[in-house]
């Protein structure tokens, strides 16, 4: 019984939880980035907050169909929509590249200065700190 109903239910709960977390964190991050405060930590990874919920729609629907209609029906139905998943991934990659290129350009045009080094709490190559005044580059992130 758990084999047929439990796994899809757990997968649905996991997907809903991850997507909810992404929406919450994404909303917070994008609000912070587009408020244009004195200190902005920009990461090209923030696009993943948009990408994950969009991509997770497909497995979510699959597990709903699996739960309600069975494995064969879910597999056959979702097989017809794989092309949409592929195009969604392509569009999300394009949006990610555009955001990674144009947002820092907007920051520089608005007078922000790029700090050298790695922002506190970030891995090398994942984020860049932008500030309005160069003296803020030496202040700890908060």
What is the 3D shape? elongated
> End-to-end span in angstroms?
49 Å
User: Which percent band covers the strand fraction?
Assistant: 5-15%
Radius of gyration: 20 Å
Helix content: 55-70%
What is the number of helical segments per DSSP (H or I, 4+ residues)? Answer: 4
Strand order of the largest sheet: 1-3-2
Round the mean pLDDT to the nearest integer and report it. 88
Number of strands: 3
Question: Can you give a write-up of this model?
Answer:
The protein has 142 residues and is mostly helical. It starts with a helix and ends in an 11-residue tail after the last strand. A three-stranded antiparallel β-sheet has the order 1-3-2, with helices on one face. 65% of the residues lie in helices and 8% in strands. The chain contains four helices and three strands. The radius of gyration is 20 Å and the shape is elongated. The model has no long low-confidence stretch (mean pLDDT 88).
Topology record:
Blueprint: H1 2-34, E1 39-43, H2 48-69, H3 71-79, H4 82-109, E2 113-114, E3 127-131
Helix pairs in contact: 1-2, 2-3, 2-4
Task: Tell me briefly what this model is.
This protein has four helices and three strands, in the order H-E-H-H-H-E-E. It is mainly alpha-helical. It has a three-stranded antiparallel sheet, with helices on one face.
